[in-house]
Amino acid sequence: DNCNGEGEILIPTKVGSRFIEKVIPCPECKGKGETISKEDECPECHGERVVEEEREISVHIEQGAEDGDRIVFQGVSDEIPGADTGDVVITLREEKHPLFERKFNNILYRKHVTLSEALYGVKFIIPHLDGRKLVIESSKDKVISNGMVEIIENEGMPIKGDPFKKGHLFIEYIIDMPKREQLDDDFKKALLKIIPIVDETQ
Predict the structure, then answer these.
(1) Three-state DSSP class for 198?
(2) What residues form DSSP beta bridges with 152?
(3) Rounded mean pLDDT of 47-60?
(4) Which of 34 and 97 is assigned the larger pLDDT?
(5) Is the pLDDT of residue 127 over 90?
(6) Which end of the chain, C or N, has fewer beta carbons within 10 A?
(7) Quick check: 154 pLDDT over 70?
(8) Torsion angle in degrees (nearest 10) through CA of 58, 59, 62, 65
């Protein structure tokens, strides 16, 4: 009766020397446009037309999914009488890995090597993300330079939509140079015989 089923009422409001009509939700029906008598109320929802319930949602994360990808479950969010049911949106956040750095479908692995390993080659194991152990051996006839990158094809992340294809694994070599106090006289003499110092001022 208060709002004639409109859910809203007009109330006069004084602004300065004038009166204007302001629209507010009807306090009797709480903006619904209808009321339910106590004897007709549903014992479960008490006239609110909705009840709370818990529901489990099983989320499948596809191989190769990336940070920021969204998984949408249509029509499983909160329901409001007279309106479309909302969606549940899952946004993926990828945690940083202690060994690998991801760039789209490729992954980067940084390998620290000593000066001797850089000169004479190195053989090491990379524990891969899928549990395999990759045995990597550098070329014996090639000196490793600091920052050099080696590409291992098809050992990166699975490509979303085609799990049989993968990106690449990039191995960046970082040479840990010996500290000056570690170089004794015998080492210095031996090194100078092989790699003499060139005085460019003469």
Answers:
(1) coil
(2) 169
(3) 85
(4) 97
(5) yes
(6) C
(7) yes
(8) -170
E strands, the chain, where? 8-15, 18-25, 70-73, 88-91, 100-103, 106-114, 123-127, 133-137, 149-152, 158-159, 162-166, 169-176
The DSSP bridge partners found for residue 108 are 101, 170
Range in 61-65, 71-75, 78-82, 121-125 with the lowest mean pLDDT = 78-82
pLDDT digits (tens, 9 = 90+) for 155-194: 999 998 887 899 999 999 999 887 777 677 777 777 777 6
Mean pLDDT lowest for which of 102-106, 157-161, 197-201? 197-201
Q: Look up tokens 């194991």; give the residue.
A: 125
Classify the C-alpha dihedral 109-110-114-118 as positive or negative.
positive
The DSSP call for residue 94 is P
Q: In this predicted structure, which of 14-18, 131-135, 155-159 has the lowest mean pLDDT?
A: 14-18
**Residue that is written with structure tokens 């998984």 in the block:** 71
CA distances from 136 to 37, 70, 131, 180, 189 (A): 78, 36, 16, 30, 33
Residues 110, 115, 119, 125, CA torsion sign: negative
Asked whether the beta carbons of 94 and 67 are under 8 A apart, the reply is yes
Token duo for residue 58: 């099983």
Establish how many alpha carbons lie within 13 A of residue 149's alpha carbon, considering only the half-sphere containing its beta carbon. Answer: 8
182 to 23, 140, 188: CA distances (angstroms): 84, 26, 10
